[in-house]
Amino acid sequence: MNKLLATLIAGLIATSAFAQTTATTATTATATPAVVKAQAGAEKDVAKAVAKETKEVAKADEKVVKAVNNATEKKVKAHTKAVKVHADATADVAKADPEDKLKAQAKAEKKVGEANLTAEKKMIKADAKAEKVAVEAGADKAVAAAKTHEAKVEAAADVKKAAAK
Question: CA-CA distance, 117 to 48, in Å (whole number)?
């Protein structure tokens, strides 16, 4: 799924880059060799920047998916452990002598409460860690997009500079 998403994004970016470069080439019908060379270099630089951004976005998405999977795994383990404590507590109450039933039930309820609290804490920590990774990945994506934009601006400036000569 991630590879498919990355491929679709890369295709979209490549299509938009191609459309932009085709329009730029068409408007400069009287381009000098220096301008043509600058445009070719600019297109190459932009293509590299777009490819690098796509790679970084895919890497960030992969980190998020991995973090979410780890969080889910930790939550399942915590829940399973809590369920086991519940079962053990119920078994302890069933084994208790009739005159000690109330005492055993109170002890079992305390165990169950502690197990539920522990499981909730672990689940909350797992979710928080996954959210932190998602936020960091979003920041990485934004930086990559900014770098691509910078490369595009620099490429356009180089073409204009060559045209002004």
Answer: 51
